Fold this sequence. Notes:
- The structure is a single chain.
- Helices cover 45% and strands 11% of the residues.
- The chain contains 20 helices and twelve strands.
- Helix 2 links the parallel strand 2 and strand 3 (70-73).
- The radius of gyration is 32 Å and the shape is elongated.
- 31% of the residues are buried.
Amino acid sequence: MSVKVRFAPSPTGWLHVGNVRAAIITWLFARKNGGHFLFRVDDTDAERSKPEYEEEIETALAWLHLNWDEKARQSDRWDRYNAVIEKLKQAGRIYACYESAEELALKRKTLLNRGLPPIYDRAGLNLSDEQKAKYEAEGRQPHWRFKLNHAPIEWNDHIRGPVKFEGEQMSDPVLIREDGRPLYHLCSVIDDLDFKITHVVRGEDHVSNTASHVQMFEAIIEAEGNGTIPDFAHLPLISDKEGGKLSKRLGSLSVRDLRENEKLEPMALVSLMSRLGTSDPIEAFCSIDPLIESFDFGKFSRGTPKFDTDELLRLNAKILHETPFEDVNVRLAGMGLQELTEEFWLSVRANIERLDDVKSWWEMAKGPVEPVIEAENTDFIMQAAAELPPAPWNEHTWSEWVGRLKTATGRKGKGLFMPLRQALTGMNHGPEMDKLLLLIGPDKAKERLQAYKKAA
């Protein structure tokens, strides 16, 4: 298989729009290339990982129609991680360190005060067996670091282009905690090798991690005699519309909130996130197929794209304006609008931003409405009520009715149409009245027009 990618969220919170952007782009790349999409749950953080978060991630992917070909969970793979760890220890690429958090903080502060980069001094490599035994007798448990080779680390990034780090300018990363559990970095690299991942797509905040990961890939491949380092594509992080950091603490930026509270259409989010930061225009798509076809990493810029919720709402509205009735009828029935017809949907959809907005138009047409009849229009509305055509009505009823009123009263334009709209709907805006009049029907129209008696 030429392309195999993974989306690997941690189930430690609600899925954030920044994370889901990586999922969408990774999925589009896989589908464009006829590839394989792995959904991998990175749940090595046992304290913070929760089943409800994992369930919500699955729900969000399904809602966005990002189907996966395979699912894996890191917590099922401890034996494999431990086996690789032993090989790396034997190869001398992982070494024990006994500094406390306070001691490491002091080392870091000292280096920074001297104007030096806070690179670990590899003191753990110089410990004798006696010194290690003494530390452990004091109750200290070691954490384990990966020994980086002091050599250039290079790769050709699909978005950033050529990337180069110098190994001697990097600090040996901690891979195993004091309690013996491996951290994200090592588990991720082992998984990417075992699942034969060909391309890793993630945020640019992982670029420095990738530099150390490249050497971890090399070390494991050397220890086991097989495997291939994947390609990398690091996406610029998105900002808010003012250019500030997009905080994960903002609940409104979780996919769960956009789906359940904002009631947005999934393709609005997919349309925005797939084009954000690219040379392609951001447009509203009702189908994901054109986005698959047009996908290309070469279209992504290195600039920081801005996430604007107002733009998301505009896309949402445009999608609904083009959505056929058969795509929403089940959802409308679930909202208690079982009697809503295709005619009604086609008449009002151009006036909604969210699907929930249909309820207000349904209530306007079918429920009690407080007509707006201004004093200066009372005589006009009285005459309009008298001229109201008898049933049955058709698509020409409105034009015939207002034509007669125009001739009889001399009114035209806004002075003719607005009082009728206000009296029939209680509002100053809405769908075209020729369609709306049919939805209201003769009985309710007559009842509302005769509210002039109360106004008088």
